[in-house]
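@channel sequence for tomorrow's demo:
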Amino acid sequence: MNNIDLKQLKHFVALAEELHFGRAAKRCNISQPPFSLSIQKLEHELGFQLFQRSSHAVKLTNAGAAYYIEISKAIDQIDRSTEVALRVNNGYEGVLKVGFFTSMLFRGLDAAISTFQKEYPNVVLELIELNTAEQIEAIHKREIDYGFLHSEFAGEELEITELIREPFMLCLSSNHKMANKKFAALSDFKLEPFIIFTREKSPMFYAQVVTLCVQSGFNPIIRYQGRNWLTIISCISKDMGITLVPKSLSNTNLPGVSFIELKPSNMKSVVSSVWRKDNLENQALKNWHNSVLRHLPKSE
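structure tokens (generated this afternoon):
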């Protein structure tokens, strides 16, 4: 039965439902002679008759009736499978695993998620909190499909696209004596304790904070090192120190902290997207990336 193809089975179903060769052939957009030959070949391959034929009528045999029930189920399943595969191919179904770090929630990630889930409700979006180094490793291992990085170097097999480029601002307690200033020089804070991410947690951010301070003429007093953005902000709100943050985070309206613009610097905070080059044709991934582009702040 290796020579039976799907077209023959669809011809059989049409004839089983129409019980008329002419109507069944027309339904299948084929002329009657090759249609009749298709049915004969199917019966020959099966080794038994599917239809009783007379000059007046066409009827299913008992074997034909049983075969019709099972083949109808199989064809329906094939059609459903094809439809599901097509929806996945077009990005309307599937699973996407997205890595992110906490600060992305203050850069429009929540809006991107909301938009994407409304437009593609049958795509399951799984979010996994990871730092830059962890996301790069997870992408390489195919544990996530998409990530956000503070690095431009992740491997030749990965596609990296810059999303945000923005200046740094100073973040300090709302009770700080300088909290009401709109603009200041970073050197004015050279004696203040800094609270930043650990070098292991975010080596790029750590290096940028130190470099910005050195460019302003001093080495920062790093008093506390945290592993979570919200922890750092909580410490600052209690006047335990200050930090530098990307400008978009100044719009978070977090209680207990204020933000001050600094003397312009060539050093910017950069966030890039990353996914595997061999996954570039994943339409669901493209749709997600477009949602991200729509909601993240514009570069400055």
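heads up for whoever presents: The mean pLDDT is 89.
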